[in-house]
Amino acid sequence: MKRLLLALFCFLSFSTFANEPTATTAEATDTEEFNPGEMILHHIGDSHEWHWFSLGNDHYTTYLPVIAFRPGHGLSTFSSHQLAEGKVYDGLKLEHEHLVSEDGSKVYDFSITKNVMSLMLSAALLLLVFTAVARGYAKRGTGAPRGIQSFFEPIIIFVRDEVAKKSIGPKYERYMPYLLTVFFFIWFNNLMGLMPGGANLTGNIAVTLTLALITLLITLFSSNKNYWHHIFATPGVPKALLPIMIPVELIGIVVKPFSLMVRLFANITAGHIVTLSFISLIFIFRNIGVAPVSLAFGLFINVLELLVAILQAYIFTLLTAMYIGGAVEEHHDADYQMGGGDGAEPAHAH
User: Where are the domains of the chain?
Assistant: First the structure.
């Protein structure tokens, strides 16, 4: 198992460089002047095709299904190969990876893009891995774990004991499926984004927005009277300040998931941008002497991204558990118990 983990670590560390310089070389030779901004945006953005790598003028690409609906034209389904290199097919074309109609009519794009395909692959991988883990528990029961079960069990126990129990309290069990799902979903996709040709799924703000909205809905539907009492009648706050405090508390409900969305999106995207920026220096200066320095810094950032991958999954899960914990926390009268008009401090202050 140790050898397997070491091999996986080395593979993920060097994976980005196995793909990016080749792609940038192709772009640099196809154009008179290398455009780092265009190259970086191309690699971190979504697309209707999955480009793996290039060898000279040969591009190895998987073309994905295009599914588009236009009022008055109906449903169109075809391969994205029909739109490659600026082609027009069935009145549709791609402009900066956005599907548009030649006649300017509205287009509803339901295509299986690179990010959507990556989402499907990660879901299949999660099902495959944790089905194997579940079989291990069904077979060995409380016995010593083996194989893949022994790798994931400490992580699952950590999420349960250090995140769910401490943040949510006695009601933690009902939220464990979501917390484990969101933790491993983010972690797996962060790692897949570091692999050769990998999609930047968790660096897509639509994905992080969806995760944050799910957290918000679970928090609101789990909330009790005490949660809303703290918002509309905050204990210890003079009634004269409530018109100010209530809007602030209501804004805080929205700001919390917003911060979850932006934090994950920004950290993952920033890591890819910094790594690609260092590699771009080689083609900007067109000097082989710059290559060792650029690759060294790029490799350092890429290895650091392995830590960021699990750290961001942990932070998102921890904050989610804390928000849920605040919503389900029971009211304790002693917390705000005041002495009979003698100005005593709240009991929890001691």
Answer: 115-331
